[in-house]
Amino acid sequence: MRLRTSKDKLKIEHSIIDGVRDFLQRLIKANPEIRSVIPGVIRPVRDARGAIKVRLTVPVQNGWKAIALSAGARQELFISTTMDKDAMERAIEKALEE
């Protein structure tokens, strides 16, 4: 299955939970070190209310795995980048503030 792209860096294979697409576009625009972001599986959760929350979970072969919480759901985000954990967390915080 071929992935659809949005500005060549946001790979969209299936839907993205509410509000997360705008966050990802801000994150990519502000950080040229990010090669691509691939949103993953969406699952319903009870504690995902209010503002969008994103946290890094584990390093993966070419970057980081993160979890986004919003609108009663959680979604995995696979971020391909050379940024270290501290730099990635700062970039996420800055993109969430905008």
Can you put this structure into words, describing what you see?
With 98 residues, the protein is an alpha+beta fold. It contains two helices and six strands, in the order ββαββββα. A four-stranded antiparallel sheet has the order 3-6-5-4, with helices on one face. It has helices at residues 20-30, 85-97; strands at residues 4-6, 10-12, 34-44, 53-60, 63-70, 73-81. Helices cover 24% and strands 43% of the residues. The chain has one domain (4-97). The N and C termini lie far apart (33 Å). The mean pLDDT is 89.
Mean pLDDT, all residues: 89
- The beta-strand count equals 6
Shape: globular
SSE run: EEHEEEEH
| Main beta sheet strand tally, sense and closure | 4 strands, antiparallel
Question: Unreliable stretches, pLDDT < 50, 5 or more residues?
Answer: none
User: Which structural class fits the helix and strand makeup?
Assistant: alpha+beta
Topology at a glance:
Blueprint lengths: L3 E3 L3 E3 L7 H11 L3 E11 L8 E8 L2 E8 L2 E9 L3 H13 L1
Helix pairs in contact: 1-2
